[in-house]
Amino acid sequence: MKVDVSLCKGGFTLAAKAEWPDTDMTVIAGPSGAGKSSLLRALVGLERAQGHVEFKVETLQSANAFIPAHKRRMAWVSQHDDVFTHLSVRENLLFAMRHARPGGAELAVIVEQFSLNERLEQNAGALSGGQKQRLILARALLSNPCLLALDEPFGALDAEARHDLLGILLKFCARQGLSVLFVSHDLDTLSRLADFMIYLDNGKVVAQGALNTCLLDERLPYRHRDDACVVLKASAAGYETSDRLNVLRLGEAKIFTPGMAIPKGRTVRLRIRAGDISLSRTRYDDSSVLNILPVTIKHIEHVDGQNALSAGLVNVTLILGGMSLLARITEKSARMLRLSPGDQVFAQIKASTLAAGET
Amino acid sequence: MTASWLEPVLLSLRLASVTTVILLVLCVPLGWILTRTRGKWRPFVEAFLTLPLVLPPTVLGFYLLLLLGPEGPFAPLRLVFSFWGLVVGSVIFSLPFVLRPVQSAFEAISPSLLDSAASLGAGPWQRFTRLAIPLAQRGIFSAAILGFAHTLGEFGVVLMVGGNIAGKTRVLSVAIFDAVERLDFATAHWLSFGLLGFSFAILLVLSWLNERGGVS
Questions:
Q1: Pick from A176, A199, A223: which residue ends a domain?
Q2: Sheet containing strand A26-29, strands side by side
Q3: What's the sign of the alpha-carbon dihedral A85, A46, A21, A226?
Q4: pLDDT 10s digits, B14-30
Q5: How many domains does chain A have?
Q6: Domain boundary at A204, A223, A242, which?
Q7: Same domain for A101 and A149?
Q8: Is the ipTM here above 0.85?
């Protein structure tokens, strides 16, 4: 998508210029009030901005043309429970199908995936919050959109319900090749879903790039957060049945993750929290840690955290065969090990802290 | 006796029904357009359409008489002192009573709901007919009842535009006035009490409706 739009609304000015791969899962991130939702609305045609928008070789908006939202076919899911309360669950879904582009998913399949079977004849207004979110997402997918635009998806749900719904969404998108553009400031959600990030602050694009690049970008807050992490793409290389461990290939390195077997060759998303990595000068062979990776130190810095707990901590940026990792250790450890940029050390990651996710 | 009081009652009911139907046809799209547009002209249009709410019916009736009368631009339609003249007057006079509730029912619909529908591929007409109208159903029904009741009770405009022609323009309220003038208090009582009871019943139904479903 190629975007160069500006919008003035009640004293706030959005002036965003960005470009990202059409096939990627893209997150619009940034602090609240940065204009994330307005940008999303402008891109799907719900907000009349000035400028230029292009998606998959089609010009959606230019100086003398504007394709309205109902012709853009980008299913937009707001932060509100937008179920049609005068209709049943089935009728809500049929509403989307009536206007759907040809070649979409079948009603029965979607109903099954979203576990809506038993609620089909119920009035949509009578559903619980979580069920409404399911219905809204199912409805959006049934319209067979060319892009799914989510504004703070599942923000109102508890972590478990959000996890479930993200899982269903990811599976669907992988199968149908549907790209998602979403607004989120939740690190958990964006690290599970995004490939690419557009970071907005005060109406302007501050940074844009691949997710991991942005998570480590020094201008952005992510690397200093308590839950700082990196998200890497690995491929499944095998399964050790007796130990029930997946063997993933991360560049040259091998990584063990627990869980059910992932089909061999599949690309998975591996999220590694900075706090879950420890460093050592020598390679231990009497430790319980399964993943020990030879890495090179690129950079060491103090954690510029918001709370008192981050005092005395440092971030160590590590290079692993072209990929970047982040380790969070104490200043004392860094001093005792005399760590400095360019050093070869071993990064230890407990397998139990890792979970490979869908891409 | 029977004919003398039945005729105005039937005429009033007919007038109110025709007026209500016309008002719904006018106000439902108009209310929707006013809700969905944010132009500079909107306050002027709204103020103009609300005028009948505050103007004395005689002022309205006077201007209508000028417009529809033999010297006016609409003279060829021969509306003055006819049933359809009453309809024109009633439609204008009762318009805000129907438009306002319709508009507030539309305004109560969440904009993001309509935007969601648009992003699912529903065009403006589908959003109006498949979402807005059914979701505002209760408000539209209340508006219809209010318009009907208000038309039944109007007097000034009707008298100015329609006069007092038995069987043609002598509606309920005019008949009451007429009866009082003739000192026929018995008829005046019957008609007045009937109108009072009917109006009360209608307002009671409205209030029940609101209580049952809240503001839709």
A1: A223
A2: A65-66, A58-62, A50-55, A2-9, A12-19, A204-210, A196-201, A26-29, A180-183, A147-151, A74-77
A3: negative
A4: 999 999 999 999 999 99
A5: 2
A6: A223
A7: yes
A8: yes
The pLDDT-based confidence of B207 (bands split at 50, 70, 90) is confident
Q: For chain A, which residues lie within 8 Å of any Cβ of chain B, measuring from their own Cβ? A: 41, 44-46, 68-80, 82, 84-86, 95-96, 99-101, 136, 139-140, 143, 145, 149
Q: Which helix (H) or strand (E) covers residue A96, if one does?
A: helix A89-98
**Domain coverage including residue B114:** 2-213
Which residue in chain B is spatially nearest to A148 when comparing CA positions? B119
Per-10-residue mean pLDDT, chain A, length 359: 92 94 92 94 94 93 93 94 95 94 90 94 93 95 95 86 90 90 91 94 95 94 93 94 94 92 92 95 91 96 80 94 94 95 96 83
Question: What is the predicted pLDDT for the residue at A149?
Answer: 97
Using a CB-CB cut-off of 8 Å, the residues of chain B touching A96 are 120-121
CA distance A297 to A324: 10
Element (H, E) at A55: strand A50-55
User: Please, is A330 exposed, middle or buried when counting C-beta atoms within 10 Å of its C-beta (0-12, 13-18, 19+)?
Assistant: exposed
- B119, A44: Cβ pair inside 8 Å? yes
Q: How many domains does chain B have?
A: 1
CATH of the domain at B53: 1.10.3720.10
For residue B135, list chain A residues with Cβ-Cβ distance below 8 A: 84-86
Q: What CATH code is carried by the domain that includes residue A38?
A: 3.40.50.300
- CA proximity to A31, closest of A150, A200, A155: A200
Dmax (CA) of chain B:
67
Q: How far is A98 from chain B (nearest CA, A)?
A: 9
* Structure tokens that stand for B201 in this block: 């019943």
Give the domain extent around A32. 2-223
